[in-house]
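Protein modeling request. Please complete all fields; requests missing the sequence field cannot be processed.
Requester role: graduate student
Desired output: 3D structure, token encoding
Chains: 1
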Amino acid sequence: MLGPITQDLLDQVVTEFRKEETQRKLIDGLIDPLIKYLHSKVYNYLQFLALLMGLIILLLLLILYKVWKPIKI
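Delivered output (73 residues):
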């Protein structure tokens, strides 16, 4: 499927990515800053979502309690 030049290039890239120094550079230079950036942008929305879900669950439990509560005549 792949030509010999492409296969050699792919093998070299895989070999380079397996080196500890290259992995450390990728983690320190790309992955960690990306995660920190996403965390700073998304964290407030996640907090709001968690609060909203908690309120929804609380209201659901309250409604279920009111519906299933025995009616006193």
